[in-house]
């Protein structure tokens, strides 16, 4: 019985069964993928863990989002090391976790059977799948994907990012799941900040006008959940991708997420499901 599948686009789909990952930005003076060793900046301890914590050799390296009992969406660059794909047998996925080093008896560890990379990301690994599925309960639950055409609310604080990443660039990971409420920025503001490195058709960005509240390294692959502009329903709008290399949360450098809605067709094709699930 399948449990998890991991897939990567410039985001990665991880199979629980699944994960979606989006590709890295082009090299630039500021763009920096938010992987390996940093955490939420300016946030607080999250009350409940609904986020996947992916572990390699028992060390935290990225986040993700449960989108179905069998599938997890994360970032493709989380599954490479020095341009080589990480062997699936080295990957452990932990869900229902809030404190990384404490046993709270809510955690579930899943061994992936496969992961799938989006064709737009240069990860050249074979397809792998998981052999188990996540048990949905009070501590583990999927989040709905934002349907195409639905826009995030622009009300300040209506988006929330979570993760175990660092408080500062190149810092150590956080042991406790953190969350930070931030603002969704319109495409024109994101393009003004990042120029041609920001692709409106595939990216969204968020932060605060003052800065110092954002995601950081180690938060890659994790969720950007926002209330919708029309009725306030909370959806997964983005997969944490990249941000400033000056400092996490640096004023004027909003962090960038891969836009989930842009990859709905790809997710449906790879999972055999029909998202968004109603």
Can you describe this structure?
The protein has 278 residues and is mainly β. It folds into two domains: 4-24 and 50-142 and 263-271, Thrombin, subunit H (Beta Barrel), CATH 2.40.10.10; 159-261, Beta Barrel (Thrombin, subunit H), CATH 2.40.10. Helices cover 6% and strands 34% of the residues. It has helices at residues 187-194, 264-271, and strands at 4-8, 10-16, 19-22, 32-33, 44-45, 51-56, 59-68, 71-74, 80-81, 84-85, 91-95, 108-110, 114-117, 159-163, 178-185, 203-207, 223-227, 234-243, 255-259. Strands 14-15-16-19-18-17 form a six-stranded antiparallel beta barrel. Strands 8-7-6-11-12 form a five-stranded antiparallel sheet, with no helix packed on it. A hairpin with a 2-residue loop joins strand 2 and strand 3 (19-22). GO terms for molecular function: serine-type endopeptidase activity. Residues 1-23 form the signal peptide. This is Peptidase S1 domain-containing protein.
Give a summary of the structure in a few sentences:
InterPro entries: Peptidase_S1_PA, Peptidase_S1_PA_chymotrypsin, Peptidase_S1A, Trypsin_dom, TRYPSIN_HIS. By secondary structure, the chain is mainly beta.
In total, how many beta strands?
A: 19
CATH A-level architecture of the largest domain? Beta Barrel
Helix proportion of residues, in percent? under 10%
- Element pattern in H and E: EEEEEEEEEEEEEEEHEEEEH
Using the coordinates shown, work out and report the CATH topology of the largest domain: Thrombin, subunit H
Total number of domains: 2
Shape: globular
Protein topology:
Elements: E1 4-8, E2 10-16, E3 19-22, E4 32-33, E5 44-45, E6 51-56, E7 59-68, E8 71-74, E9 80-81, E10 84-85, E11 91-95, E12 108-110, E13 114-117, E14 159-163, E15 178-185, H1 187-194, E16 203-207, E17 223-227, E18 234-243, E19 255-259, H2 264-271
Parallel strand pairs: 1-13
Antiparallel strand pairs: 1-2, 2-3, 2-13, 4-18, 5-15, 6-7, 6-11, 7-8, 9-10, 11-12, 14-15, 14-17, 15-16, 16-19, 17-18, 18-19
